[in-house]
Amino acid sequence: MMRTLIVEDEPLARDQLRTCIAMRDDLDLLGEAEDGTNAIRLVDELSPDLLLLDIALPECSGLNVLRSIRQRPAVVFTTAYDCYALTAFELGAFDYLLKPFGPDRFNKAIDRVMDRLPHKDSDPPIEDRLGTISEDQFLDRFFVRHLGRTLPVQTVDITRFEAEDDYTAVHVAGKKYLIHVSMRELERRLDPKVFLRVHRSVILNISHVRSAVQRDRRFLIHMDDGSEVMTSRTRTHLIHGLRL
Question: In angstroms, rounded to a whole number, what is the distance separating the alpha carbons of residues 12 and 172?
Fold first, then answer.
């Protein structure tokens, strides 16, 4: 049984989480908090294994809750705003739930927690990552999951981001990692002097561009990892200003 604490200020979302927890035999609900201050108290008093944590909370944000608690439970963020999804990956959270969500999405998140728990102690401490998080700064790194481990990825090493169904594929050092973050949110947090969105589904790191050949009203871009990307016609003008 995974001892679970809900931290959520919206009554409907708390009801939804409570219902989803009751449907699983491997979760034990310890309690609920409606604000950050009570969340800190309950986490340190009850020592939950899993924290279902809203990021936007009264009195004290979810990130400040994590900065303040002494216990280190597994964390699944809940949020009504997909702009916080990347924050979850910067911190290496086990998962995040975008409200409103259903039982299927909740169960996927809990299954991911269960898969990762045996490796939790080998992950970088979440408190070490909190100091690097700032919505006002461009993204320098974030964390991905690979073979049961949490790995840091430096954005300078990323060749490109590419939309892939409901995920975004991160291409780095010849490997591909999938993250559940929108291209729009990634573009917002990436340095525009380094990353260029050349297609609705592709963001390139221009420092990894080897050459660009114009074809009709588009460019075929050759990357230094051997991959090729075709720009969209509406974004071809962005390539003309690059010094390759």
Answer: 40
What is the architecture of the domain spanning 141-240? Answer: Beta Barrel (2.40)
- Amino acid in position 150: T
Nearest to 123 by CA among 91, 149, 145: 149
Neighbours of 199 (CB within 10 A): 20
Neighbours of 43 (CB within 10 A): 25
Tell me if 7 sits within 8 A of 52, measured CB to CB.
Answer: yes
Number of C-beta neighbours around residue 40 at 10 A: 22
In 3D space, the residue among 20, 71, 79, 18 whose CA is nearest the CA of residue 47 turns out to be 71
Q: What is the pLDDT of residues 189-216, one digit of tens each?
A: 899 999 999 999 999 999 999 988 888 8
- Cα gap 88→109, rounded to integer Å: 13
Average pLDDT of the segment spanning 88-109: 84
Tell me how far apart the alpha carbons of residues 119 and 105 are, in angstroms, rounded to a whole number: 22
Extents of the domains making up the chain: 2-130, 141-240
For the domain covering 2-130, report its CATH number. 3.40.50.2300
Strands (E), the chain: 2-7, 27-33, 50-54, 74-79, 95-98, 141-146, 149-154, 158-164, 167-172, 175-179, 195-199, 202-205, 209-215, 218-223, 228-230
- Over the stretch 102-147, which tens digit does the pLDDT of each residue have? 999 999 999 988 887 766 655 555 655 555 555 567 888 777 777 7
Report the candidate in 152, 146, 147 with the shortest Cα–Cα distance to residue 125: 152
Smallest Cα–Cα separation from 94: which of 63, 59, 61, 52?
52
